[in-house]
Specification:
alpha/beta; 38% helix; three-stranded parallel β-sheet; globular
Length: 104
């Protein structure tokens, strides 16, 4: 598993840097992206989709699908461990890259 990080100012493009790095390091594998807020879950999914990412995206937090403002194709929201396990199993790949965005 690769563990990647970048230290950069707010608004400098860390989300897109993460998407590009993960696409390069794990083009066929799953990617685990850790972010400190529910808002960043949605922002990350939107930016990754805009950048052309077509893989599985699952948001794991208390934010509902309706409140995320995204379709379930763009990002599936859940707080249910069984749903997470089923989606990972359905992807037929194991995590091969992880990206973390630290909170303040």
């Amino acid at each position: 598993m690769y563990v990647d990080s970048a230290l950069a100012a707010s608004g400098s493009g860390k989300t897109l840097i993460a998407q590009r790095v993960c696409a390069e390091l794990a083009p066929q594998g799953a990617t685990l992206v850790l972010v400190p807020t529910k808002a960043l879950v949605v922002q990350t999914a939107r930016k990754w989709r805009e950048a052309g990412y077509r893989g599985l995206l699952t948001g794991v937090c208390s934010l509902s699908q309706d409140d995320s403002g995204l379709s379930s194709w763009e990002l599936t929201m859940t707080s249910d461990p069984a749903t997470v396990a089923a989606r990972v199993a359905a992807s037929s790949s194991v995590p091969s890259s992880r990206w973390s965005s630290a909170g303040r």
